[in-house]
Design a protein that fits this description.
GO terms for molecular function: ATP binding. The chain is α+β, with helices and mostly antiparallel strands. The strands form 2 sheets. Strands 3-4-5-7-6 form a 5-stranded antiparallel sheet, covered by helices on one side. Strands 1-2 form a two-stranded antiparallel sheet. It has 4 helices and 7 strands; from the N terminus they run βββααββααββ. The N terminus is likely disordered. It has a single domain, classed as Histidine kinase-like ATPase, C-terminal domain (Heat Shock Protein 90, 2-Layer Sandwich), CATH 3.30.565.10. A hairpin with a 4-residue loop joins strand 4 and strand 5.
Length: about 150
């Protein structure tokens, strides 16, 4: 099991599950409710994918999807922001989840500071890259998820 500390994450260190099993996970990584959270999430995702042997276009797509989901949580939801990553080898897929504290009553700083045509493409990007994606509302939280196939990993 590998352990890595990432700047900007509030859980330390982050433990990756064994890469050889039926599934591998990074769960419960609490990110700061700040714009820098997207950068930390990309680094965490890249390290996990490398540990699991997922690379190339699949890894690039997964990192972009995580970045978009975290950015949406920072801009449109309340804290906390928690990142979960699952590599399900039996289904040949990645499941990427961002759990937030539910909708914010006001827009984030970036969205509030720009024109309406300068934002709003994140979920379109997620939809184009993921084989499935969606939202699961919960009591006091919302989970935004996306699944990507791992075929094409090297």
């Amino acid at each position: 099991m590998g352990e890595t500390q990432f700047p900007g994450s509030e859980s330390s260190p982050i433990a990756f599950s064994e890469a050889g099993g039926a599934s591998a996970t990074v769960t419960g990584v609490r990110l700061p409710h700040l714009p820098q959270a997207s950068s930390a999430a990309r680094a965490i995702t890249a390290a996990a994918l490398a540990d699991w042997g997922v690379s190339g276009e699949v890894a690039e797509a997964a990192i972009l999807v995580v970045s978009e989901l975290v950015t949406n949580a920072i801009e449109h939801a309340r804290p906390p922001v928690v990142l979960n990553l699952i590599c399900d080898r039996s289904r040949h897929q990645l499941r990427l989840e961002v759990v937030d504290g539910g909708p914010s009553p006001r827009a984030g700083r970036w969205v509030a500071s720009c024109e309406s045509d300068e934002h709003g493409r994140g979920l379109g990007i997620v939809g184009a890259l993921a084989k499935a994606h969606g939202v699961h509302p919960g009591a006091g939280s919302t989970t935004h998820w996306a699944c990507l196939p791992t075929e094409g990993s090297s």
